[in-house]
Amino acid sequence: MKTFLISLILFGSVLQAQEAIPDKEEMVTRQYYLQIHRWTQITQTQNQASASSNLPWARKEADPEAMKAFFTENFRIEFPEGSWIRNHKSGSSWVITMHNTLINQERLRYTMLRSGAIPLNVNLTLRLVAFHAEQIDHLERKSPTGLSDQALLDLWRNGEGKTLSSQSLKTVHGVNAIIEMIDEIIYPAETRIRIEDEIKTEYTEFETRSTGNILNVTPTTTPDFKAINLVILPEFTTYKGLNPDMDDKIKAFSPIFQSLNTTTSLVVPQQGTRVIGQTTSKDGTQQFVLFISAEIQEADGTPLNLNFLDLLIKE
Fold first, then answer.
1. Residue 61: CA count within 13 A, CB half-sphere
2. Biggest alpha carbon distance in the chain?
3. Which stretches in the chain have pLDDT values below 70?
C-alpha cells in the first residue's frame, strides 16, 4: 500500500512539473506597445527590401494578411492555423496584438526589443566608497594581480568601508543621462584697492565652482541583453576650505577643492556590479573605490525577463 502511495505521489509530481513547462504550441494572445518613431523607421527600412512592401502602416489598421506576410518575411514569425495579428494606433504608440504560439510570441518580442521598438530602461547606481588604505594594501599583497571587483564588493557588503556618495538614475537604452547634486561656491577672483581716509579693498570679480557629484552616462544594451555597455563620466568635487599657507590678505582668493573624476567605457553584466576605478587619497590614509551597478528593466520598472532567450535557443 505504501509503495502504491509513493508511486502515486511521484506520478503527481511529474504531472505538476510537466504542467509548469510552457507548451510552445499553445496559442496565447499578447499586445506589444511600440514607439511610433522607431517602428516607422524599422518598417520603412524593411519595406524597401521586402517583397511584401507598401504595407499600409500609416492607416489606423493594416490588412491582416499583408501584416502576416510582412512579419513572416522580415522577422521569421510563423502563423499556424488559428493564429492572427492586428495593429492599431493608440496615442504615441503602435499597438500590435497577436494570437500565436508561445515561440512565435517570444520571437516577436525579442525582435522588437532588439530593434528598440519596445523601449527598455537601464537602471544605474554609482557608489563612491572609502576604505582604509592599509587594509586594501594588506589584502593586495596577498594577491599579485590585485583585488578583484568581487573581492572589493564583498568587503563593502560585509560592512567594510564608508559610502561617501550614492547616485542612482534611469535612462532609456542608448540615451545619455546626467544627474547633478551640487552646491555652488562663489569666491573672489579680483580686487580693487582704494586709498582715501583708509585703505579699502573691494572685490570686483568673482568665480563660481560647483561642488558635489555629477554622473554623466550613456548605456547601451548588448543584443542578447545579458550585459550593458557604458560610456561614463563621473565627477566628485569637495570644498576643503581656504589655503592656510596663504597670507590673510589673499586667503579669500585661494579656496582648495578636491576632485575625483574619470572618463571611461566598460561592460557590466545584467544585474551586476563592477569597479570603475580606484585611487588613494592625497594623505594616503584612504582608498577611494568607484562601483557601478546596472540592470536592464521593462518600462514598468521590473527586471527584464530573459526566459524568452532560453526558449529561442532551445527551439
1. 6
2. 116
3. 1-24, 45-62, 190-203, 249-252, 308-315
N- to C-terminal Cα distance for the chain?
42
Sequence-ordered strand ranges (E) for 17-143 = 27-35, 84-90, 93-101, 121-132
| pLDDT value for 205 | 78
User: Going by C-beta distance under 8 Å and a sequence separation of 6 or more, which residues neighbour residue 232?
Assistant: 215, 216, 217, 218, 262, 263, 264, 265, 266, 276, 292
Cell numbers that stand for 152 in this block: 572589493
- Spatial distance between the Cα atoms of 111 and 205, rounded to a whole number of angstroms: 58
102: phi > 0 → left, psi -120 to 50 → alpha, else beta; which? alpha
Distance CA 269, CA 229 (A): 9
C-alpha cell belonging to residue 95: 499597438
**Three-point CA angle 99, 20, 96, nearest 5°:** 20
CA distances (Å), origin 62, targets 73, 108, 190, 202, 206: 16, 17, 69, 74, 63
Query: In whole angstroms, what separates CA 132 from the centre of its chain?
Result: 30
pLDDT of residue 2: 44
Q: Which of 165, 277, 164, 182 is nearest to 239 (CA)?
A: 182
Burial state string for 135-149 with b = 16 or more CB within 10 A and e = fewer than 16: ebeeeeeeeeeebee
Which three three-digit cell numbers place residue 5? Answer: 502511495
- Burial classification of residue 108, based on how many CB atoms lie within 10 Å of its CB (0-12 exposed, 13-18 middle, 19 or more buried): buried
CA distances from 128 to 11, 279, 284 (A): 54, 11, 17
Torsion angle of alpha carbons 117, 118, 119, 120, nearest 10°?
Answer: -130
pTM check: above 0.85? no
Q: Are 213 and 236 in contact (CB under 8 A)?
A: yes
H or E element, residue 36: helix 36-48
